């Protein structure tokens, strides 16, 4: 492909794996220990809010203890040094991209350090444990705060902006995602329908690997910095 002017990067749990954050569907991943219907659906939250608060409190505490890795650092460097536009759309709810220095970033599945009030619908910064008795920082109402996470059956954030960016970029990279969860799993088709060059960078071939123009398989901390170097040198 020719030198790109605008790059959209989709990231998933695999980019944070070498920082020590669990993935979902790998052996020993999160879904081998928890049933997603209990912890990642609105119905599960309605049934047992304490289980869901505890699940996200545990993960928020876990992410506070880890650091961005060489793959996060490389993407932040790409945003700083690339002459065109770089947008990261992450499915991850950790804050490792921003801690590495990425700024043009969409958390399409929400954020661990954010709370959503079901009364005033405000999203507020939230770094502590959350529980049934937590009060909304915006309106003060107690008992209606939830983790600001997009659960199954809910609409991911900023889909209009993402589709517009996908249709208007010229390089789409998919990093560290198994391609099991929609709508993110369909971004590669959408990009290809708009003549965008698509590349998968993942430990192993994902569900939709054959749809990509190119694929590079290996650990994110190795293949992402190498690929960023190639882009910055004009591919
Ligand atoms: C490495 C590595 C290393 C490891 N280096 N790589 C039937 C058909 C089609 C769609 C549906 C359907 N039934 C239902 C749906 C829709 C549903 C869906 O897609 N379900 C599928 C499971 C079938 N999607 C939704 O509900 C979404 N909303 C939606 O569609 O809205 C539209 C709508 C709304 C209302 C009415 C009607 C329509 C919402 C999805 C929300 C997903 N939420 C989760 C949990 C919350 C966040 C959290 O708790 O963290 O988000 S699920 C979980 O999966 C999490 C992740 O963001 C997401 C994706 O996982 P990811 O990142 O790909 O991780 P893994 O573990 O799967 O893969 C890791 C990869 O990394 C692997 O490939 C490894 O090899 C690799 N790896 N180490 C490089 N070192």
Secondary structure: number of strands: 9
Strand order of the largest sheet: 3-2-1-7-8-9
Strand content: 15-25%
Work out the radius of gyration. 18 Å
User: What is the straight-line distance between the termini?
Assistant: 8 Å
Number of helices, counting only DSSP H or I runs of 4 residues or more: 9
Outline, from the CA principal axes? globular
Provide tags for this entry.
single chain; six-stranded parallel sheet; three-stranded antiparallel sheet; 9 helices; 9 strands; 20% strand
Describe the fold and architecture:
With about 240 residues, the chain is an alpha/beta fold. It is built from nine helices and nine strands. It has helices at about 15, 35-40, 40-45, 50-65, 70-80, 95-100, 160-170, 185-195, 220-230; strands at about 5-10, 85-90, 105, 110-115, 125, 145-150, 170-175, 195-200, 215. The strands form two sheets. It has a six-stranded parallel β-sheet, sandwiched between helices. A three-stranded antiparallel β-sheet has the order 5-4-6. Helix 6 links the parallel strand 2 (about 85-90) and strand 3. Helix 5 packs parallel to helix 9. The longest helix has 16 residues, at about 50-65. It is globular. It binds ligand BJW. Ligand BJW binds near residues 26 and 40.
Short note summarizing the structure:
With 235 residues, the chain is an alpha/beta fold. The chain contains 9 helices and 9 strands. The strands form 2 sheets. It has a 6-stranded parallel beta sheet with strand order 3-2-1-7-8-9, with helices on both faces. It has a 3-stranded antiparallel beta sheet with strand order 5-4-6.
């Amino acid at each position: 492909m020719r030198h790109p002017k605008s790059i959209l990067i989709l990231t998933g749990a695999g980019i944070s794996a070498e920082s020590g954050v669990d993935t979902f569907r790998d052996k020993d991943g999160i879904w081998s220990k928890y049933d997603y219907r209990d912890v990642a659906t609105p119905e599960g939250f309605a049934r047992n809010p304490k289980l869901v608060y505890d699940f996200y409190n545990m993960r928020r505490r876990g992410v506070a203890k880890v650091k961005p890795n060489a793959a996060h650092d490389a993407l932040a460097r790409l945003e700083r040094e690339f002459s065109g536009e770089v947008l990261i759309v992450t499915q991850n709810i950790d804050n490792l991209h921003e801690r590495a220095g990425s700024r043009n970033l969409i958390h399409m599945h929400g954020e661990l350090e954010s709370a959503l009030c079901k009364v005033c619908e405000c999203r507020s910064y939230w770094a502590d444990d959350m529980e049934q008795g937590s009060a909304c920082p915006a309106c003060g109402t107690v008992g209606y705060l939830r983790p600001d996470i997009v659960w199954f059956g809910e609409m991911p954030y900023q889909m209009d902006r993402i589709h517009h960016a996908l249709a208007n970029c010229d390089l789409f990279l998919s990093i560290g995602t198994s391609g099991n969860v929609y709508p993110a799993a369909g971004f590669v088709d959408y990009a290809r329908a708009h003549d965008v060059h698509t590349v998968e960078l993942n430990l192993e071939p994902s569900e939709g690997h054959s749809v990509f123009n190119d694929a590079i398989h290996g650990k994110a901390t190795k293949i992402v910095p190498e690929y960023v170097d190639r882009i910055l040198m004009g591919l």
